Amino acid sequence: DKKNSKRRLAWMFSLGNATVKATFKHGTSKKSYDFIVATLQAVVLLAFNDDDGLSTVDYDTVRGRVNLPDEHLKRVLHSLACGKYKVLSKTPSGNAVKNTDAFKVNPTFSCQMRKIRIPMANLDESHNPKRVEEDRTVAIEAAVVRIMKARKTLSHQQLLAEVLSQLAFFRPNPKLIKRRIEALIDREYLERDPDTPNSYRYLA
Questions:
Q1: pLDDT reported for residue 68
Q2: What is the mean pLDDT of residues 8-37?
């Protein structure tokens, strides 16, 4: 299909999110939290759901349960055990995640907030500026297509505002959004509305 030959489908795990409900016991009392996390963080947290909360799980066991490559798993575990909200405890303690580490649910975790957003940590060894730029380009184009498919016709300013609203977690530069719109026009996802200046139409 020549029309779709330039289209590419890629999983963007960093753009997904989930709310994980967790209950921590403190003596005879219990406190529940809603953790707002990325998709892979949710997968790793659920890997500890099979244990009683007191068991320590070594790194290899966690990797076997979630089937993630080391590069991704270490990044996720770092955000959960070494970040601001340490919902997992790591042995030995430290800011680096190693294959010899062990983890368990942090029995002393406590926070005044009930809803907590746990950010993904950018580790030096896994932070690739070129890859981040590529991921953001794909995210912008996906947002534009998603919005235009639903709305069919929008002015440039309306489309810009909706894209910025959907991608508020990294707030792309409007000039970059405009370049991605131009690229989508070239690839025949969109077209300029011949009847309305500075407007676009979605091409099914």
A1: 87
A2: 82
First to last CA, the chain: 15
Which string of DSSP letters, residue by residue, matches 146-177? HHHHHHSEEEHHHHHHHHHHHTTTT---HHHH
Burial classification of residue 90, based on how many CB atoms lie within 10 Å of its CB (0-12 exposed, 13-18 middle, 19 or more buried):
buried
Residues 6+ apart with CB under 8 A from 1: none
* Residue in 73, 71, 26 with CA at minimum distance from that of residue 45: 73
Give the pLDDT confidence score for residue 24 in this predicted structure: 86
Tell me the residue type at 96. Answer: A
Distance CA 104, CA 89 (A): 6
Question: Rounded to an integer, what distance in angstroms lies between the CA atom of residue 185 and that of residue 202?
Answer: 9
- Is the pTM above the cut of 0.90? no
Enter the DSSP assignment of 119: P
Q: What is the dihedral of CA 68, 70, 76, 77, to 10 degrees?
A: 110
Fill in the DSSP letter of residue 188: T
Q: Give the pLDDT confidence score for residue 126 in this predicted structure.
A: 47
Tokens linked to 51: 């244990």
